[in-house]
Predict the structure.
Amino acid sequence: MLATLSQRHLRSILLLVLIFLPISAEAEGLLPLFLTPILAAAKDSAPPAICSVPPEAQAEDSSSPDWVIGNGTPESCTSAAVVAAVAKGGIITFNCGTRSKVIIMEETAKVFNNTGPKIVLDGGGKVTLSGGGLRRILYMNTCDSAQVWTTSHCQDQDHPQLTVQNLTFVDGFQGGEKNTDGGGAIWVRGGRFKIVNSRFYRNRCADTGPDVGGAAVRVFSQSQGLPVYVVGSIFGGEQENENVCSNGGALSSIGVSYTVINSLMSYNRAIGSGANPAREGTPGGGSGGAIYNDGNTFTLSLCGTELLNNHAIEGGGAIFFVSNDRTGSLKIQDSQLRDNPSEGFETSGYPGIFYLGSGPPQVSNSTIE
């Protein structure tokens, strides 16, 4: 119902909310997210679920959690509780009361590789994790000894298997001179990773650099080359919620396949300058307004997905896809790609896309304009 309301009616609703919401709500961290569902319903929603979702890409069962963050009150859902639960692994849910809850992370939650092996973080559609514009929100790295090495081949192992579902990630940040690896909200290397029914708003990573990327998410080294699934999720949605990085406003990876199903990526930006490799006299970057894919053999598959109003200073306002050995492939099915300007370069006949791969992009029942 809210999705059909006019902006004028929404402003009236918001004014009433601000007038009558208890003053204590802001102190409890409720106010920002209490307003978020009203705004989100009017401004963005994932596309209709027109593409089928394979079993391995569906939400995980969280009905019998190993850990519950919170005891039913908003104040019991803290950054420290999130960090502790993620470190323990397993199935994790939240009990923060009846209203939506914003948790401002005071440190990054980090997965330990000897837990799980299945790790599920399920916000139940009511929890927002915020980096406060200061830090990354969630981190997993099978090759980080501080998070425990569990195999002799950390770059290709089948665990941990991390899922984030029914969560919102906002104001994640990974930047500065020493933080050039991207992944403003989430950074993953190794094991398996998927995103289901989640939202990513206002995340950022370094503004420049030829290889840095993924304001929302950056991923490396998935087990056996299997894809990262992104299902029913939103990146950006409206201009005020844009995700911004040197490359790949929404997603970035090197040598990793993505399967993106029934999702929306809009108003994401790649703001670096000089492309990759960086032109002389430039810091580099600026490609893949929404998605940045680089490496050798990998596949980017879009189905039932909309990429709208994304922007790149250099190449690929929607998608930058470079398979260095030309073995990678791009598949676009039942999707809409519109109004994704590339200021520098793009592939002829494919507005908003720069593509170097195996044959031409495979496009069916889709609009690219």
In short: The mean pLDDT is 90. The chain has four helices and 30 strands.
